UniProtKB/TrEMBL annotation, chain A:
Gene3D superfamilies: 3.30.70.260, P-loop containing nucleotide triphosphate hydrolases
Keywords: Amino-acid transport, ATP-binding, Cell membrane, Membrane, Nucleotide-binding, Translocase, Transport
Full protein name: Methionine ABC transporter ATP-binding protein
Molecular function GO labels: ATP binding; ATP hydrolysis activity
Residues in ABC transporter domain copies: 2-241
Family: Belongs to the ABC transporter superfamily.
TrEMBL record, chain B:
Keyword terms: Cell membrane, Membrane, Transmembrane, Transmembrane helix, Transport
Name assigned to this protein: Methionine ABC transporter permease
Residues spanning the membrane: 23-45, 57-81, 87-111, 152-173, 194-213
InterPro entries in UniProt: AA_ABC_Transporter_Permease (IPR051322), MetI-like (IPR000515), MetI-like_sf (IPR035906)
Amino acid sequence: MIHIKNLSKVYKTKKGTVSGVDNVSLTINEGEIFGIVGYSGAGKSSLIRCMNLLEQPTSGEIEVNGLDLTKLSGEKLRKARLKMGMIFQHFHLISQKTVGENIAFALKAANTPGKRINERVEELLEMVSLSDKKDVFPAQLSGGQKQRVGIARALANNPSVLLCDEATSALDPNTTLSILRLLKKINREFNITIVLITHEMNVVKEICDRMAVMQDGKVVEHGEVYDIFSDPQTELTKEFITSVVSFDVPKPILDACTGRILKVLFRGDVAGEGVITDTVQQFNIKGNFLHGSIEYIQERPLGLFLMELKGTDDDIYQAISYMEKRGARVEVIENGI
Amino acid sequence: MEFDVQHMIELWPEITKAFGQTLYMIGISLSVAIIIGLPLGILLFVTDKGLFLENRFVKSTFGFVVNMVRSIPFIILLVALFPLTQIIVGTTVGPLAASVALSVAAIPFFARIVETSLREIDKGVIEAAVAVGATPWMIIKDVLLPEAKSSIVQGITLTIISLVAYSAMAGIIGGGGIGDLAIRFGYYRYDDTIMIVTVVILIILVQLIQQIGDWTSKAIDKR
């Protein structure tokens, strides 16, 4: 659906050239929500802005719906953009026009007949739950409401793709959640492919199907969100995951532990099977939880526990292999065997 | 310095006539400045680097012409434009003739003001319009002008007040007007009464224009 091939974007500055996006290739499937995470300056913003040619890539191809956008210009590019919605961190609504007029603007761009514009504006406002705000100016809306107007405008012409440029970064956590739910609803109901960039791992965890992690203009890791959360490959990805699933145990507590400290990870259904209870019952060991949580990613549980095991080396060794046999992944992180 | 009420009443028809001429010259030159200067200012903005109608040639050509006209002192422009004035209005004297030079001076002045007003618009809003697939004309009509209108009204206020000042020089070619009256009677003839009356009228006029401008600019802003 979106094929990005060897995309590079080089910026010319007074001091020389800076590489924004460095030879990125990605495929985003139809109907999925794809998240791109990275710190600021990682190139994710340049990448998403290249996807609708707000920025002209230096080299590479961007194929959307079978059309190579980099080969288009003028009227053809404008027509292609009608089928790609975009929302922004700071909403970018026309401040001197009402909510209804802002949405109508997008419809006019697609030459929608006047009568149809009114109907469609009402429809869109209802979809984003702002039916009563049609004649209000953006200045009178809250951040979340402004973003809803942004979403309504972006979806006005029934696009196949919605690009979200840090769409929730200016919002508080509750509002972020409600916007994410709305995006998910739109994705499911209209089968719109959503590409979002963010520096908040929570956003990805909440709604994305697949994700990519960017650093220095390159994609360093990509795949299913669940797989990346349960088995991150790069240090950077681990860092991002820590922001959502943190396992900081105060040092005095760790120091007070006399047994072995294990990090146990359960994927999918295993998380609910009581493996740890079984283990402690079957072997001559004592278990002690230090930290633990079950995260639900794409409605699949991912259990992560930090525990202390006390017993003979042999018993502990057997207990670990038993847990591994049951599908857990065990890592001894201190006082290891 | 003394103020002679009798003298003022005697010359009152002269004063009202001059006031009418001032409004006449400003009216014409402001209209021309808006009709030509507004599109010119928009052109200077949208052809700038990174904007949706980026065009270096157009930008630098028009930019050069605008700067050139603006760098000529108004008195010189007034005289240098005689041939053009002759063609357009058929004479080189009178308020209408002076309006030609005032217009020529006001067009680039107002164009730069419009360009600056447009530059104040959040680039993101323009970008969002591009992303939505809007045509350049739609962006100009529905984004640039509405977003800058409050600031453009301030610019019109500034232009009118500058025109009031410039129009005083129109007396040189018999343009008339309040400023001319102040120079002819007050300055050359040491007629304090007329000097005071005209200056007071000008002060009130400028204050009024500024007040109306500020109020309008605020009233139409929806932010």
